[in-house]
Design brief:
The radius of gyration is 17 Å and the shape is globular. 34% of the residues lie in helices and 24% in strands. Strands 3-2-1-4-5-8-6-7 form an 8-stranded mixed sheet.
Length: 242
Amino acid sequence: MNDATATIRPREAAHFGAQAAEWWDPKGSSAMLHRLNPVRLGFIRSAIDRHWSIDSGNRNPLAGKSALDVGCGAGLLTEPLARLGASVTGVDAAEDSIAVARDHAAAMGLSISYHAGELAAVPQGRFDLVTSMEVLEHVADKPAFLAALAARLETNGLLVLSTPNRTAASRALLVGAAEALGMVPRGTHDWHDFVTPDELTGLLGDAGLAVETMRGIAFSATRGLHLSDDMRLNIILAARRA
């Protein structure tokens, strides 16, 4: 499977493109992503250190490595990957989001290659690290999307992916409560598009990938969003070529 297969839903791209101007506002429509980002980055850093046997005190663990952030939005994760030393490429379905990403990176003095459209919009090549956070639940063809991610992964590469779990808890909190309370814009999620950990492991296996580690992102009143063994709301995982 090559990454020319169409996976973008036009309505999904339009939904997120309409929020582009607020991506970098921690109190705007992407507020939840701003809260998620430190948790995701903590997991990514641990996965990087473990996969490549890097000292946790190294401030540039991705120096000399390439990274691809798929579904990058306006760069909330892409920019931190650049600061960890990677040569970073980002791709997103929403052209408006990519425009904001380019402007913000330039203002921060970061050199990031951004592309709008399908993954095929990125020049052919493989990457040491491929990330795709909160994207799988929005794509039209999950097997094709995961196969396209796998095709861009170097032989000893690392994939980090996060997506909501399909449970009663996620339906009540991530869809019902989050949208009703304005924590995410209405229409952001369709619960039926969520996948369970077993389903995701199977889909990754079909794409030629093996899970190295899988955790949950949970929420509590005292700790807020945090990494946990409780995967009822959200799954985050690291995978490699099988």
